Amino acid sequence: MSEANGAVAAPEPLSGAKLALASTALALATFMNVLDTSIANVSIPAIAGDLGVSANQGTWVITSFAVANAITIPLTGFLTQRFGAVRLFVSSIVLFVIASWLCGLSTSLPMLIVFRVIQGAVAGPMIPLSQSLLLASYPKVKAGTALAIWSMTTLVAPVIGPVLGGWITDNISWSWIFYINIPVGLVAASVTWAIYRKRETPTLRVPMDYVGLALLVVWVGALQIMLDKGKELDWFASTQIVTLAIVAVIGLIAFLIWELTDAHPVVDLTLFKRRNFWSGTLALAVAYGLFFGNVVLVPLWLQQYMGYTATDAGMVLAPVGLLAIFFSPWVGKNINKYDPRWFATMAFCIFALIFWMRSQFTVQTDYFTIMLPSLIQGIAVAVFFVPLVSLIFSGLPPERIPAASGLSNFARITAGAMGTSLVTTLWDDRAIGHHAVLIEHINDASPATQAALKIMTDGGMSTQQALAQINFLINQQAHTLAADEMFRISAMLFIVLIGLIWLARPVKAKVAAAEAAAAH
Fold first, then answer.
1. Which H or E run contains 311?
2. DSSP letter at 180?
3. Measured on CA atoms in the order 343, 348, 354, 356, is the torsion positive or negative?
4. Are 77 and 403 spatial neighbours (Cβ–Cβ below 8 Å)?
5. How far, in Å, CA of 114 to CA of 105, rounded?
6. Contact in structure between 362 and 329 (CB atoms under 8 Å)
7. What is the DSSP string of 90-131?
8. Is domain 16-199+266-433+476-518 annotated with CATH 3.40.50.11780?
9. Which helix (H) or strand (E) holds 289?
């Protein structure tokens, strides 16, 4: 492997059919990666039932991938210097394909989680590298268009995932939500290698911050396990949860101290000294955590309590792709003309609107009304990512862009995993509270209860079957009310996040886009 000697001229941008083919291959790889963060969402009940575990335990299939993915993202800079961007990207795709195949072969939850961890870990470099390779393929003046293409695949994939996952689960088998990665990955790897192998980046032997990496794994892993197991173990009444919380806090403090003093940190925390970086990254992370937590919640509620199939639950979220695909190119062309804070504000206002619309759902809400917010959400998805990336990168010298990309993506993906755990846990907790209130009105002395039992028993049910049906209806109402609360809280948080956006200094988006492109 060669050492990098001196400055190496960046390769010329691609053009014509080669640029279109390269963009498609990179988009496929990114789409496949991000798709796997959500394709299992609607399949959790089927996976849990097939493997003999609860639906709550089944959510580990989602969070195990996300946490492993988030932990390896900060290593992208080191691995790129060591092996080269093209070689690392193609290797990640091939390893991802192998891990996907092993996931599909899994016969138990622990086995599936192990392979999902491997799958998430090898996928870590794919997202930052797909972004940097795409930016390097376009002229600097079209960096906004390149980012729009990249963001469209990154944000639409989590929504298409439930549709595809639902159809596959209902019509074939949940294993095929992983097997479909094999042909897609092989095509993406082959095309990428054919086009980019002569555009390899220079390599350099650099020291590895093993202590920082170990501390990162410890505190992120402990925090995520605590969030996942909290409800099951009654939170801080459990010694295990208390221990995990202590490990997470001590691990985080040790990580911060080490990274701020080490000569070659695995994560460049000094980036947080810049106002636009920390405000943009925080807004991106919290917003994505809310977005992704609700992407998980909606199909769970529809399948478990509204009688929807996995396919129907996925279809409810599908319309988001329509307007996202339509508006993303427009955002890419116009991001240079306006302050990116206005675009981000528009996105957060629309997110707040659609979550408020969802907070009005009842057990009688029809299919179209449930689907409508997803259609409107497509506009928010289109204008969500590019403006925040522009803010995050603004003012950074080219050599710091890769580190900024890795750190901001780490924050985003970690927030997505934690958002899933927090939203589903709070949903269940609030449902228990609503159930306790509703059940107070169901007793032998209640005329409404007696009337309902009579109608059901007259219809052929036994008394036990009638009581079970009443309990289901109460559960359905309780979980719907709890879901409404989650949607309402999400709407309010998006409004609050608007203030965070405006803490950033004003910046011309074209400057940030040019800086991002210059880094590659």
1. helix 310-317
2. T
3. negative
4. yes
5. 12
6. no
7. HHHHHHHHHHHHHHHH--SHHHHHHHHHHHHHHHTTHHHHHH
8. no
9. helix 275-305
Torsion of CA 226, 229, 233, 234, to 10 degrees: 70
Per-residue pLDDT of the chain (520 residues; tens, 9 = 90+): 444 444 455 677 777 788 888 888 888 888 888 777 667 766 777 888 888 887 667 777 877 887 788 788 877 877 887 888 899 999 999 999 999 999 999 988 889 999 999 998 999 888 888 877 887 788 877 766 777 777 777 666 766 776 777 788 888 888 898 999 999 999 999 999 999 888 887 877 777 788 988 998 899 888 878 877 777 777 788 898 999 999 999 999 999 999 898 887 878 888 888 999 999 999 999 999 998 888 889 888 998 889 888 778 878 877 877 777 778 777 777 777 788 899 999 999 999 999 999 999 999 999 999 999 988 988 888 888 878 888 888 877 766 776 787 788 888 878 887 888 889 889 988 999 998 888 877 766 677 777 777 787 777 777 777 777 788 888 999 999 999 999 999 999 999 999 999 998 887 645 444 444 444 3
Find out whether 226 and 283 touch, Cβ atoms under 8 Å: no
d(Cα 27, Cα 15) in Å, to the nearest integer?
Answer: 16
332: Cβ–Cβ under 8 A, 6 or more apart, which residues?
Answer: 144, 145, 146, 147, 148, 149, 386
The one-character DSSP state at 141 is G
Question: Exposure of 272 by Cβ count < 10 A (0-12 exposed, 13-18 middle, 19+ buried)?
Answer: middle
* CA–CA dist 148, 68 (Å, integer): 26
CA atoms within 13 A on the CB side of 263: 3
- Environment class of residue 237 by beta-carbon count within 10 Å: exposed (0-12), middle (13-18) or buried (19+)? exposed
Distance CA 17, CA 151 (A): 21
Rounded CA separation 312/320 (Å)? 15
144 burial (CB, 10 Å; 0-12 / 13-18 / 19+) is: buried
CB 43 within 8 A of CB 310: yes
C-alpha to C-alpha distance for 283 and 306, rounded to whole angstroms: 33
Q: Are 475 and 439 in contact (CB under 8 A)?
A: no
Q: Tokens 């092989």 identify what position? A: 186
